[in-house]
Amino acid sequence: MDIHSEMDKIGTRARAAQNQLQRAKTGAKNEALASMAEFLRRDADDLQRANRKDLRVAEESGRDAAFLDRLRLDEGRIDAMARGLEEVAALPDPVGEITDLRYRPSGIQVGKMRVPIGVIAMIYESRPNVTADAAGLCLKSGNAVILRGGSESLHSNMAIAERLRAALGRARLPLDAVQYVGTADREAVSVLVRMDAFVDVVIPRGGKGLIEHISREATVPVIKHLHGNCHVYVDASANPDKALRVVVNAKTQRLGTCNTAESLLVHAARAGDLLPAIAQALQEKGIEIRACPRSLPLIPGAIAAGEDDYYAEYLGPIISIKVIDGLDAAIAHINTYGSQHTDAILTEDLGSAQRFLREVDSSSVMVNASTRFADGFEYGLGAEIGISTNRLHVRGPVGLEGLTTQKWIVLGDGHIRV
Length: 418
Prior knowledge:
Blueprint: H1 3-21, H2 26-42, H3 44-60, H4 65-71, H5 75-90, E1 98-103, E2 109-116, E3 119-124, H6 129-140, E4 144-148, H7 154-170, E5 178-180, H8 187-192, E6 201-205, H9 208-217, E7 230-234, H10 240-252, E8 261-267, H11 268-284, E9 288-291, E10 303-304, E11 318-324, H12 327-337, E12 342-346, H13 350-359, E13 364-367, E14 387-388, E15 396-397, E16 404-411
Parallel strand pairs: 3-4, 3-6, 4-5, 7-8, 7-12, 8-11, 9-10, 9-11, 12-13
Antiparallel strand pairs: 1-2, 2-16, 14-15
């Protein structure tokens, strides 16, 4: 297969489909989303059968438990994909929304209208649910999407995409609004991220290596986050019960996600009374602790942390712990070692909470809540196409509004400039 020729065809079809989508009514888009959810639930057995092929190859290749967890599709996750699509259908349609309309001294009205970005290229690894999430969000926001998942999830992704396209057909919307690049050839990715004539933005979702590679190669704008080194800081005024509950949840509720806590910071004034209990609870859930010199004597079974541990996104049963001297040190540590993803403070001091919110330079900053809440579904977006640590054009979980842009509109009645 000539990859360049094939990708040009996909791009041409995507652009044509997006032009048609611009005229689509909200009702038709919602009908397609409802049908997507219906078809995923109806064909859950077929989807799991396809997924088992991918899991078998991954297991034979020696992939670790966290990877297999990200890859696995069970009945609950299929239902969650379907519910995500239904949530997106229930959300207001952002396309065509007019805001900030105001009269100017000349008599004209000036405002902004929200419009689709155009054609989105979605490149991702492991998680088959991204296929449905990305397609649903792009459809509702009026964008065509070109999907390219990893070879490790090829059977799962193609099975899901087949159902999504069938739903578009039922709603009489262009099938090519959702296209899946079904080749495992890596050259397809290199071509896709340089298709300026057809693709308006690339969104990579996966490991740091994938995102760094795409960021280097792309000539199309990229919405990205490189990794998720998320912190929880236990302040001097932290409530012990909240601290224990939130830290354990942030680290252990699910290990292999980018919003899982990888680093724990504890105020020196509370290390003696809080760290032993928190560390024991983490260890009871199988977490290995890599501790700084000040925390190491307080945690039986911990090992010494190295400098690299403070930068690490483990995506597994490991956490780094550091005792620090206060809020200033916590903020400095997070802004130095963090990945600008999600960071949380546990405190009962309003001033500390406000400073943390203002000064921590991350896309999501939390007070007395688990970092695991940094998620499009939890934020009320229905689903997310990814999490951005960019400063432009969107930051944090990317939902419908993040997949649109705005253009200026001017309303007059024969007005001329004098």
